[in-house]
Amino acid sequence: MPARPTRRLLALAAAACLAAWSGQAAAEEVNLYSSRHYDSDRALYEEFTRETGIRIRLIEGDADQLIERIRNEGANSPADVFITVDAARLARAASAGILAPLRSPVIEQRVPAGLRDRDGQWFAVSTRARVIMYDKERGVAEGLVRYEDLADPRFRGQICARASSHPYNTSLGASVLAANGPERTEEWAKGFAANLARPPQGGDRDQFRAIPAGQCGLAIANTYYLAAIGASERAEDKALFARIGVIFPNQAAGDRGAHVNISGAGLVKTAPNRAAAVRFLEYLTSGPAQERFALGNMEYPAVADAPLHPALRAMGSFRPEPVDAERTNVNATQALQIMQRAGWR
Ligand SMILES: [Fe+2]
């Protein structure tokens, strides 16, 4: 029946004419490759579309796989913007040559220099601190003020942490390695592994949830996971949040500060929708977008004038270790080898 396809073609042609006539030809879009997995991000993309008419086509995946995919797609890649969590992976994306140096007065004015790549290949949209959590009912252990103290034999059998191969812990290990060198990091990792309460399992939330259950005295987790519990209206979450104390490590004068990791974004070198992509990247630093990261996902906003979630503010203020994405990336492999060799699997 040849009439059918013909009729469909005619209908398509008519629709195209109508769209062109009404000024709505081919809607602009941005192809976003992201390894972030938060509902608040989707809400942010929808807000951007409502404001600009530019559609966000989201391709989610593991950061290293997305980098590989963009490399393989080469000049034909539909990717416009790359977003990921973890400084080391941002540095890997830059060194893989998939990102374009971008000079944007908006981004440079909004995001502090310490949270941007020197060459403009990426910038941070938010940060989170990796902290030590403890049971307020048992009280804080005296002298537990640095990541280094977690290797002390008096914490034998007390620490709960997820696998060392998770980027959050690998980057923490890379930070310890950068500060202390391989020999002392090896000693630290051995002491830390000996202090584990159980073989690493689960995600960050599972570590501090095990504190009131009596399985661990101390947990390593990112701030935003606990703040999400603090933001919950459920009675059991409120009780959990009230019970967990937070230590921001390495705060003494002259010490390096608490380890923070970043989420960041960059323009893909081959971006087919470059202008729309730059508009989206700049939007990520805007008040409404920064508020999403801060109030929707309980992260520290990258932009100074954005608000903090009250649950995050309740944890107290701290001094972060300066972010050095390239150094984190360079140290990550060796740090992971050291941690695994020490028994922190
Ligand atoms: Fe996470």
Automatic annotation (TrEMBL):
InterPro entries in the record: Ferric-bd
Transmembrane segments: none
Keyword S-adenosyl-L-methionine attached: no
Keywords linked to the UniProt accession: Signal
Signal peptide: 1-27
Coiled coil (residue ranges): none
Superkingdom field: Bacteria
Keyword Disulfide bond: no
Protein family membership: Belongs to the bacterial solute-binding protein 1 family.
Protein name: Extracellular solute-binding protein
Species: Belnapia arida
